[in-house]
Design goal:
The chain is α/β, with parallel strands linked by helices. It is built from eight helices and ten strands. A six-stranded mixed beta sheet has the order 6-7-8-3-9-10, with helices on both faces. Strands 2-1-4-5 form a four-stranded antiparallel beta sheet, covered by helices on one side.
């Protein structure tokens, strides 16, 4: 494959992907999903509980495998990869943001942010220097030595975002990143993601129940009963984001 061809490929590609669970009565968590996400695109996934949103994220990040279909990240087919290979893929290519922040409570802000680099073998001095730069970019340069229990919810989520982006992964997955925040703080987090998208050309897959959060993306997918039932672009002129 030539470099030009690789660059033109979707960053994320799902072809007829299904995921079933159960030995007796089969549960069709996802059914025949076709999805293509290009570099720099922001895609929101919405739908009621049990619609398949979490299953979709788990498949894309390699925590689970499809029952059927093809799933590729940067042209790499995930099916058939060993557990170690999928772990390396997540560590090198996927940043993740969670509703519950998932910061390590015994580590300071700079240690939490630098952790992905340390896991990649980057020396501590270099990793923490890069983490301080990232903390400055998100407006928390004065919080480098604070631990999570000394920070507000909004500050913790900002640190989680910095940690997810410290190694500049091709893909950022965000699972209800504003779910535990009040509306004003949540809007601040979404504005930060907007700013970081402009700086880093982030490719974002955002799972949310929040219509205003989804409006920060370029495209909205609606899942129901394991299928994509609706797909529409976000029209900025018609959406007022507060």
């Amino acid at each position: 494959m030539t470099k030009a061809t690789a660059e033109n490929e979707p960053l994320v590609l799902l072809k007829n992907v299904s995921r079933d669970y159960g030995d007796g009565k089969t549960v069709h968590a996802l059914r025949d999903i076709n999805l293509s996400i290009v570099r720099g695109e922001r895609v929101a996934v919405m739908g009621p509980s049990g619609s398949g949103k979490s299953t979709l994220l788990n498949l894309i990040c390699g925590l689970d495998e499809p029952t059927a279909g093809v799933l590729k990240l940067e042209g790499i087919e995930l099916s058939g990869l060993s557990d170690d290979a999928r772990t390396r893929l997540r560590r090198e290519k996927i940043g993740m943001i969670f509703q519950t922040f998932n910061l390590l409570p015994t580590l300071t802000a700079v240690e939490n942010v630098s952790l992905p680099l340390r896991l990649q073998g980057v020396p501590r001095r270099i990793a923490e220097k890069r983490a301080r730069v990232m903390l400055e970019r998100i407006g928390l340069s004065e919080r480098t030595t604070h631990r999570p229990d000394e920070l507000s919810g909004g500050e913790r989520q900002r640190i989680a975002i910095a940690r997810a982006l410290i190694f500049q992964p091709p893909l950022l997955l965000a699972d209800e990143p504003t779910g535990n925040l009040d509306s004003a703080t949540g809007e601040g987090i979404l504005s930060l993601l907007d700013d970081l998208h402009r700086q880093f050309k982030i490719t974002l897959l955002l799972v949310t129940h929040n219509v205003l959060a989804a409006a920060h993306c370029d495209r909205i997918l609606t899942l129901r009963d394991g299928q994509i039932v609706k797909e529409e672009p976000v029209e900025r002129t018609k959406v007022k984001v507060r």
